[in-house]
Design goal:
Number of domains: 6
Shape: globular
Strand order of the largest sheet: 4-5-6-8-7
Largest sheet: 5 strands, mixed, barrel
Radius of gyration: 28 Å
Number of helices: 19
Helix content: 25-40%
Distance between the termini: 60 Å
Structural class: alpha+beta
Number of strands: 34
Length: 726
């Protein structure tokens, strides 16, 4: 609402402050029908001098989809007209789903996703913000509808593969959910050649039977080059591969030497034995730990986190760029950092034998895992050692003599760390915290940047030590902010949807398991369920399906707890080099650490800004996850290209009307067995049984079954691997 805000500032001395919230409240509670704009203005006694400003507010609300303009120049709110505003998620086959926006404050309307048939898409493209009308209810009350208006287009440009056809060209979008090629007039093809990856600017969106039109604005190269593939994914997801010149110039001004003034104003922990534990290839060390047992009974844990907020100040160019990115993005052989390398890999990274500015959380913890006392400091450290997960695990679990001799002065500390880790883990499990023990792939690349092998990633005691210490620190930081009544940004995970829990309960019933109450599922009951399936053939599958049945964790200015971790109060604080919410949390904590009481205008500022920051960072996190997953999936397809005709064992991860999804054992590669390729019978899909059953022989294939398959086809274009049953 930028225009409205500017006009409002000019007319503030005489204009009555009417807000979007007030208009929506009036339309819900008092208006008995859709109103014309003049009628709405009269209801709020808007005079002729202020009408222009009011008109812009109404226009902005229409653009946002909170008000809908209908025939006769009348305005209503979506929920009273059986309309829903949301984001379209398309399917490559042409249909889609509208994901409703969260209900506005004061509205009791809630709805699930709305199915949109291929003929009812109204030229909308994947990702567009749309208004749809709910027209019917299908199976299990699922809503079906029709798009009636496109509120906002998602894409201004796209990445795809250029193809030539006579006097024109066309671009096949990299995003498979955009199922229309982009028509490129001859004069707009640039220097693109057939088969090259390009960036195309959309000049005309689809209409009636016409495809969208565009012009090639950049040629990336041929997509069989790993660097080009990565660049395509970076552009497709709107990631920022290069820092603006002004950001780099600002970075150059950051002092590499710590001043005496800074040292005087901080708690000096440089004489405290401190180590970092990270992966072999890590360069940005956010956290370091120190551990003592001063009274021989209770543990004193220090978690030192890089003080990024000292260098990336609020409203600076560096901060604006970090906010835009939201998070670092990690690919197989490279990283797109949130901060320039001079910060992320140098002055902010807690390198050994170098003085570094930190924020330290000091905690006294008893043998039962209770935190007896905690304190937060602006601090300074000098890390003694840079340890890797592998070496710490070799010392603690394999009793490696060579490493034990090298780090003999740390052996007692490592033993203490393991002790405290197991105590904290036990305490967390008592609360009901759910650990999804899902194996992760460790992808080994060759010199050309392609996958050489896929192994099961190791999760050893060193990983668990750092995990438990960071979880505990995040809880302490969250509680410190929450108890102060100061605004904060929290990491929340809401309770699962009862309907999805009911579906999950039906699914696990096939394996002889059940949940007591799907309407009020407790973390503790799900924890026990997972424990009861441990070591069984269905364990991995149940973990997968349960994880998909739960809501996603997000950032929020409201503390509603973390269901999965069973924490009443939780935030992200321990990774400010690579996550913007952690940086915000640091700023809030440091404001609380100042001797002067925080000013009211600072509190008001945070209350205003934090909702948008939380929403933006949640979105950027999802974008990063999708990009990281796409790179991995693409490389897996390359890895399977030379394996056509080979046989593998796997298990069924999903059953649909068109076939079976199978994941190969130990390779983390998934493919599709088309139902038409199973030739010994006609197979009927049974949704509730998560299976297909032969019509004549009654042979059953269900989720979780082990099968042997043969690789039939690998398609780079479709990003798909086809299996047949061996």
């Amino acid at each position: 609402m930028t225009l409205f805000t500017l006009l409002l500032k000019k007319a503030r001395h005489h204009f009555k402050m009417i807000t979007e919230k007030e208009i929506l409240k009036f339309m819900r509670e008092e208006a008995s029908r859709p109103l014309k704009r003049k009628e709405l203005a009269n209801a709020f006694n808007i005079n002729s001098d202020d009408y222009r400003i009011f008109r812009h507010l109404v226009k902005d609300m229409i653009q946002e989809g909170t008000l809908i303009k209908i025939k006769g120049g009348r305005y209503g709110i979506p929920e009273k007209m059986n309309l829903v505003t949301g984001t379209l998620q398309s399917h490559p086959d042409g249909f889609g789903f509208v994901i409703p926006e969260k209900s506005h404050e004061g509205s009791e309307t809630s709805t699930g996703d709305i199915y949109i048939g291929a003929r009812k898409m109204k030229d909308a493209m994947h990702g567009d913000k749309v208004v749809c009308r709910v027209e019917s209810h299908g199976y299990k009350g699922k809503k079906e509808g029709r798009i009636i208006r496109i509120v906002e287009r998602c894409y201004e440009s796209l990445v795809g593969t250029y193809e030539h056809s006579g006097n024109f060209g066309f671009v096949i979008p990299n995003e498979r959910r955009i199922n229309k090629d982009i028509y490129i007039p001859k004069k707009c093809t640039g220097k693109a050649r057939k088969g090259q990856a390009v960036v195309v600017e959309i000049t005309r969106y689809p209409r009636a039977e016409h495809n969208p039109e565009g012009k090639v604005i950049e040629v990336l190269g041929y997509p069989d080059n790993p660097d080009v593939e990565v660049e395509m994914i970076i552009r497709s997801h709107g990631l920022f591969n290069r820092f603006p010149e002004e950001t780099l110039e600002e970075t150059e001004k950051v002092p590499l030497k710590i001043s005496d003034k800074e040292l005087r104003e901080r708690k000096d922990f440089r004489d405290l034995l401190t180590i970092t534990i990270d992966g072999e290839n890590a360069k940005d060390f956010d956290d370091a730990i120190s551990l003592e047992k001063p009274d021989g009974k209770n543990y004193r844990l220090y978690v030192h986190i890089a003080d990024v907020s000292h260098y990336v100040t609020e409203n600076s160019g560096l901060s604006r760029e970090a906010y835009k990115r939201g998070t670092s993005v990690y690919f197989l052989d490279r990283v797109i950092p949130m901060l320039p390398q001079k910060l992320s890999n140098e002055i902010c990274s807690l390198k050994p034998k170098e003085d570094r500015l930190t924020v330290t959380v000091e905690m006294d913890i008893d043998p039962g895992g209770e935190i007896l006392r905690n304190h937060i400091y602006s601090s300074m450290i000098n890390s003694n050692e840079r340890m890797t997960y592998t070496d710490v695990a070799k010392i603690l679990e394999n009793k490696d003599k060579k490493l034990a001799k090298r780090y003999d002065y740390l052996l007692d500390k490592f033993s203490l760390m393991k002790e405290l880790c197991l105590i904290l883990n036990k305490k967390r499990k008592e609360l009901g915290s759910i650990d999804f023990d899902l194996p992760e792939p460790d992808i080994i690349l060759n010199q050309e940047g392609r996958i050489n092998n896929i192994l099961k990633a190791e999760r050893n005691i060193a990983h668990r030590i750092i995990e438990e210490f960071m979880l505990t620190t995040n809880v302490v930081a969250a509680k410190h902010i929450f108890k102060s009544s100061f605004p904060g940004i929290y990491r929340i995970h809401e309770e699962p949807d009862p309907e999805k829990m009911s579906d999950f309960n039906e699914f696990i019933h096939n394996f002889g398991y059940s949940i007591d109450d799907t309407n009020s599922t407790k973390a503790k009951s799900l924890q026990k369920l997972i424990a009861s399936a441990r070591g069984t053939p269905e364990e991995k599958l149940m973990n997968h399906v349960l994880l998909r049945s739960m809501k996603q964790a997000v950032y929020s200015e409201k503390n509603s707890g973390h269901f999965c971790l069973a924490f009443e109060c939780y935030t992200h604080f321990t990774s400010p080099i690579r996550r913007y919410p952690d940086l915000v949390t640091h700023r809030i904590l440091k404001a609380l650490l100042t001797k002067k009481r925080p000013l009211q205008n600072k509190i008001d500022y945070l209350k205003k800004k934090l909702p948008a920051i939380a929403k933006h960072c949640s979105i950027r996190e999802r974008v990063a996850m999708e990009a990281e997953r796409e790179i991995i999936d693409l490389n897996k397809i390359h890895f399977m290209m030379d394996k056509i005709g080979e046989e593998f064992s796997g298990f069924i991860t999903g059953v649909t009307s068109f076939g079976l999804f199978v994941e190969l054992e130990d390779l983390f590669v998934e493919g599709l067995v088309h139902v038409t390729s199973i030739k010994d019978d006609y197979y009927i899909y049974h949704e509730k049984k998560h299976s297909i059953i032969g019509e004549n022989k009654r042979k059953v294939y269900r989720v979780g079954d082990k099968v042997k398959i043969e690789i039939e086809n690998v398609s780079m274009g479709k990003r798909q691997i086809d299996f047949v049953l061996a």
